Automatic annotation (TrEMBL):
It catalyses: ATP-independent breakage of single-stranded DNA, followed by passage and rejoining. It comes from Daphnia magna. Residues 1-402 form the Topo IA-type catalytic domain. CDD domains: TOP1Ac (cd00186). Keywords: DNA-binding, Isomerase, Topoisomerase. The keyword Isomerase applies. GO terms for cellular component: nucleus. This is DNA topoisomerase.
Amino acid sequence: MCIYKISNKGKYGNLDSTLISYGPCQTPTLGFCVERHDTIKTFQPEPFWLIQVSVQATEFRKLVLEWERVRLFDREVASTFHQKIKDCKQAKVTGISQKEKVKQRPQALNTVELMRVASSGLGMSPHSAMIIAERLYTQGYISYPRTETTHYPENFDIIGVLKQFRQSPDFGADVRDVLSQGSIHPRKGQDVGDHPPITPMTLASREAFDHDSWRLYDYIVRHFIGTVSPDCKYLVTRIDFDVGHESFSVSGKKLLDAGFTRTMHWQALSPDEHMPDLKLNQMIPINEVKLIERLTSPPDYLTESELITLMEKHGIGTDASIPVHINNISQRNYVTVGSGRKLIPTALGISLVHGYRRIDPQLVLPTMRSAVEEQLNLIAKGRGNYDEILHHALEIFRLKFIYFVQHIESMDHLFEDTFSTLSQSGRNFSRCGACRRFMKLVASKPARLHCPNCDATYSLPAGGSFKLFNELKCPLDDFELLLWVGGPNGKGYPFCPYCYVYPPFREMKKGSGCNQCTHPSCAYGLNATGVASCGECPNGILVLDPTSGPKWQLACNQCQVVIKICEDANKLSVANSTCPECDARQMIVEYRPEKTKLANGLTKIKDACIFCSPELSDLVEKRYASHAKSKRGGRGRGRGRGRGRGRAKPKDKMAQLAAYFV
């Protein structure tokens, strides 16, 4: 749901986003990220002091002891304790305790845990991880990947699934260990009544996948094996020391049974955590006693994994929508993804959340959405009336929307403090047809031209670069023409900024360039540069790109077809005559003597068809096209309307050309 949406293209120059929006799930998701950002920026580091003692436990093993007081924020007090023990030469062992502990094997895998691990452990975004998981599911390698359940069904054949992996070079050894135990009892999880947990369905090898698909499949298989493996058991040893009547301690772990960490190796214990064999009352030589000063540090930015945990905790989104919300705040430039998949809010994201808080703090809090979820659960349990709850929810959002609109100036003030207005942004670029003064090119997304004098803004084509087109002007509105160059083929076309936004003819769509303009006298319109119908799309016209020389090309004004023609020609133009065979517009081609590619050293040829004339047909090269499609009717000569007498012939010529080059 989106209750607030504004197009920003006409207001701020350095605001790099095409859309500002509010959503009851999306905005609290962003709110978590901005809240952490605010905590980091307002954090004031505070100095503290601790005493660190290093002892020589054995000939080859040093131990660094932890102070029982942990740390002190008063330097004088900490220094007093340091003076008290700094000259001590030995530490006395005052206590040794051991306790066996268990690291539980994981529960069955659900979607949220899959996304968490994919982000924190595999470096994949939740959105990408779910795309890969869905592909693995459709290919039959894993079960349905969207589920909240963490408990295997009673009739689930765990043994049968395990046996498929018994001979695997990657998982076989671990699977055989599990099967040799006899009875298998996975941890009890939660069955929410949707789909079973995510499990592997069949054995596959690395060669069957790309890199990321294999890593996700490998994790799913290992997680499944881990859920039916024993718990990891280890022994925790704590040794207490007395140094000058100050208490210190050190602890370590000794592995007893690796259990599930054999297959989920990233959760294995560190091999050097076990303690040396010391005796009670033993005196241990002290190597060093140090007073260390440190500063408190702020928390780091939220990772995607931590954000998923917060969203799940507060009831924001579902297993299906959580990756969508995280992807949205990234795609809309509210956050950027830093190293370690950390989510760093942008100036836009920060301003949005702060603006929402100024107007109505509840818009950012997760409580609004969780309250709606609670009411929906009442409907699902048969304890709530659908119509009443729907009316109540709609009324709340209606009132909040009205209040928000009435106080929108609070948001505007924040944006004005953060971003530059269009009149303050950009650089002088081309002249406005209305006032004859320079308009400014604002290059940030979305690109646009802004006339400070007229206070008018004109959107520009996306995904390319712009330059002035020989200071030529549109015959309709006197705006200076611009040239757009972009796309995979280096396609380019001139366009009028005003006509691009306000098409002058009914058949022109918004966002059209001169290559689609039917003005009869424009030297760069469709009537002057159109050559033939495109054989690859139903409505396209092949248009001469007047800026492409000396590597001249025809480009379709609807699709990506590009035809290179008459390379190194000095001049190339479209004649008024048409080809009697195919009804395409004929060409006038002129070469310099030293670069001519015409037969018999000719330097100029007039009224020749690039498809039919033998003088030019060898100078045509199709540069980019999809496979030739089934024949369909052309539209004549490319003047914006078809002529019946040659309707089928251009279609056939282009189909033959496509078949030849493809």
